[in-house]
Amino acid sequence: MKVLLFRAKLSNLLKPNCIFRVSRMSKPFSRLPTCVVPTHYKIHLTPDLVNFTFQGECTVNVNIKEAVDQVVCNALDIGSIEGMVVADGKEFTAKTDLNTEDEKLTLKFDNPLPVGEAVVKYKYVGNLNDQMKGFYRAKYFVNGEERYAASTQFESTDARRAFPCWDEPAVKATFDLIVTGPKDRVILSNMPEVSSVEEGETKTVTFDRTPIMSTYLVAVVVGEFDYVESKTSDGITVRVYTQMGKKEQGQFALDCGVRSLEFYTKFFNIPYPLKKYDMVGIPDFAMGAMENWGLVTYRESCIFVDPNNTSATAKEYVAIVVCHETAHQWFGNLVTMEWWTHLWLNEGFASFMENLCTDRLFPDFKVFETFVPTTLIRALELDTLASSHPIEVPVGHPTEVDEIFDTISYCKGASVIRMLFNWIGEEAFKKGMQSYLTKYSYQNTETPQLWAELGAASGQPVKKVMATWTEQMGFPVISVKSRQEGSDRIVELSQAKFTAGLSSSNEGDVSKYFWDIPISIKLPNGEIMKVVMDQKSMEVTIPNLAADQYFKLNPEVVGYYRVQYSPEDLERLCASVQELSQLDRLNVLDDVFSLIAAGKASTTDGLKLLQAISKDEKSYVVWNSMSNAISRLSTILVDQPCYENFKRFVLTIFLWIKDDISWDGEPNETHLKTQLRMVVLSKLGRYGEHGVRLEAKRRFDAHVAGTKTIHADMRSTVYSCVAALGESSDFDTMEKLHNKEELQEEKDRIIRAGLAGFLNKELLEKALNFSLGSEVRSQDSPFLIRSVAKNPMGRDLAWQFFKDNLPELRKRYEPGPMIPIIVKGLFETFTTEEMANTVQKYFEENPVQGIDRNLAQALETVRVNAAWLERDLPNIKSFLDKCPINVQYL
Ligand code: BES
Ligand code: ZN
Questions:
Q1: Cβ of 517 less than 6 Å from ligand 1
Q2: In the 3-class helix/strand/coil scheme, how is 163-192 assigned residue by residue?
Q3: Is the minimum distance from the CB of 347 to ligand 1 under 6 angstroms?
Q4: Which of 10, 145, 220, 228 has its CA 20 to 30 A from that of 396?
């Protein structure tokens, strides 16, 4: 798929009524007409939790600007629709026409409607679906009894499945919600309840009027919940709703909710505009969380913390998710993107702020150190591909909108905002944000409006610089070469687009790419030089740097770029590698490995670097990066005869740190040390260290027998090491543990590290069959399939399973984000051109909605893998043959 360089005015393409197509597969699309616009909705929903239907009444105050004879809004999957208009005191009855292709509902009148204010009334029925979108049912069990809650998930374009509406983010209005449901259930919406009237077995709850807001932020939840409650210093009531009898699991998220609201209130200098802030865990939930204004919904594992069974990483993630959704209460809810093209504004910004806020609330988590591998490097890896896309993409039809909630919007978005934050500084950033959010409160914006405020606050050319990062895809690699002139070092810098190096790529002329790059250079005395590189090449003079001294670009990896040093400069840097900070060490390693994968450096140099660094390295972030480099190598080598030697090589690397690592850890050890234990023991166990596997098995048996519970932090590690032993009785035990487990986080661990981790084909087939069975929640099945695919022994099985079960997968998840998640994970680990062609042909014959981008990216990755092997396999093989190996190996 060819991705264009979108430098054109995107907003012009997206004006109402402009019909356009953005890709080969996309459907024609037009925005709603603007001759009738809503100002206020009154929505009455009556869900039936037994028959899984709901009744709806939606009354909309509108402004008719032209004398039209039809009213067009969005609707989908609702039926028996009656529509009429009351204007000038007269009733106008309408014929209704629901077009499911373009998701529009038209009320047609015999005569034109009078210009001015009017009321449109809709009556309809709908299904409480099981697809986790629109107004849907979520299954849970109480003492083995199956029960259902009802919840909404409207972003991006599914409010229209619950009520007819102008379902575009820029068409804001106020909302009155009324919900009738069983009287023994908790009924929640965005605003506080103003009245509740019981009648027979039901109650009707009326909620306060919302502020002016977008339809995708409306929410309703009906279910059985307990809650914990607290208040912010401004008197906002914050609650976390949990499963019945488990309210203590909401305590940590409650603390994060209160403190993040207080943090942002100060940071943005704008009070939280509602009176309450509810957070609720929903038993079936497609995403991680959703920022509905005043009623944030969560996947259970992203909100509940069980002090005895939640791992440190899962707890950290809860903090991150809460801080992310709280950021949206301002950035997204108060000020909203004009159209989905600017989605990155919402998600990229919240993904940066989640870290800033979590870092201030929990400095010990050191989130910016994990940000580099989990967010920035992840984005760089995807953005290397010709099938990546710019942060800002023209999108139209809902299936295209779903596709851009991806690593580029989230991770690249967050990374370029972090780069900007570090460039202009926190004070200017804060000042710019405050004026942006104040100026555009209750309105909609496009990206340049944010740049304008940040530019004014900082006095820097923010718009000029940032446009180069958001409007074109990819990122630069800076080639660095220095020479000595007297006591000065002259550093020559030149930039070019970093490419994956595929000769078959249809990327076009990459020389046209150019970035304005905020660069910093760290010197051995700790000093940092800063410059904006606004040319293709330039020279920087470092005064008083001796010929044997190093310098390092991109300290703390705040820039979204890679660096290729000349061999001499790299050598000086590597000689001083232990003087660098841990993020800088990681950066040197990671840049070298990315250059290797792209054919710009040799794999054997990378293997030597791994050997050299591993001897003295103690830092989690660096070991984690080594572990990632090893996983990438493992992917390409797994089908090769030298794989056995490679496994031994990995063990020799990890044995350097083994003696520093204990199973039980030390009291009060740091968060990062805990993670180091996990990564080292997992790698050793997976690659065959016999002692580690046996110790894991001993601990697993004691855990199952109830004699000694494994600490939550170590459970994934233990499960994955036990799975590596491959005993079918352990598989059965894990399956049972999964089925009786109530904590979602633990179910996830058993599925991903345990069941999907066996190194035995029969058991992996069992895991795949289990994935679509009744014991696995619909929200979890795709992750089990994906985890099996990522297991080298499971890759081919998962592909076959996917083909065999595509009809069922379609029935459950198409359209939506779940099949794309499977597709990406499933195919990117193949390593031959032939396989890329086979997969491509398969999807040409069996098209699936919404997978275009993920498929193109996965296929390109396969081709990169194949080219890498072809280039370097003989050298890798002879390096591994000669490598001294001395480990006990199972
Ligand atoms: N707005 C999104 C949820 C969403 C994503 C709705 C895609 C519709 C389509 C929400 O703010 C979000 O970003 N959630 C993340 C969690 C976050 C911590 C990255 C998620 O769901 O993974
Ligand atoms: Zn978000």
A1: no
A2: CCECCCCCCCEEEEEEEEEECCCEEEECCC
A3: yes
A4: 220
The full set of domain ranges for the chain reads 36-328, 335-470, 476-559+561-582, 638-882
Q: Are 482 and 569 in contact (CB under 8 A)?
A: yes
| CA distance linking residue 622 with residue 609, whole number of Å | 12
pLDDT at 857: 92
Ligand 1 binding pocket includes 322 (Cβ within 6 Å): no
Number of the ligand closest to the Cα of 321: 1
pLDDT in tens, 58-109: 999 999 999 999 999 999 999 999 999 999 999 999 999 999 999 999 999 9
Tens of pLDDT, residues 66-75:
999 999 999 9
Regarding the beta carbon of 155 and ligand 1, being less than 6 Å apart is answered yes
**Level-2 CATH architecture, domain 638-882:** Alpha Horseshoe (1.25)
**Entry pTM:** 0.93
Assigned CATH topology for domain 476-559+561-582:
Immunoglobulin-like (2.60.40)
What protein residues have CB closer than 5 angstroms to ion ligand 2? 347, 350
User: Which protein residue's CA is at the shortest distance from atom 14 of ligand 1?
Assistant: 289
- The tens digit of pLDDT for each residue in 784-840 reads 999 999 998 999 999 999 999 999 999 998 888 889 889 988 999 999 999 999 999
Task: Give the residue whose CA is nearest to atom 10 of ligand 1.
Answer: 290
**pLDDT recorded at residue 671:** 84
Please tell me the CATH code under which domain 335-470 is placed: 1.10.390.10
Q: What is the rounded CA–CA span in Å between residue 227 and residue 278?
A: 10
Q: Which CATH number fits domain 36-328: 3.20.20.300, 3.30.70.100, 2.60.40.1730, 1.10.579.10?
A: 2.60.40.1730
pLDDT of residue 14 exceeding 60: no
Q: 588: how many CB neighbours lie within 10 A of its CB?
A: 22
